[in-house]
Amino acid sequence: MHQVATGYGLIEGPVWDPDQGLYFSDVVNGGVYRLGLDDSISEVIPRRRGVGGMARHASGGIVVSGRDVSYAPLSGAEGKVLLTPGQASPDAIGFNDLTTDAQGRIYVGSLAFRVFGGDAPKPGHLHRINLDGSVETLSDGVMLTNGLGFSPDGRRLYHSDSRAPGVRVYDVAADGAIGPWRMFASLGQGTPDGLKVAEDGSVWVADARGGRVAVFNADGSHRTDLKVPLPMVTSLCFGGDLRDLYVVTGSDGGPKENCATIFRMRVDVAGLPLSVARVAV
Question: Is pTM beyond 0.85 here?
Answer without folding.
Answer: yes
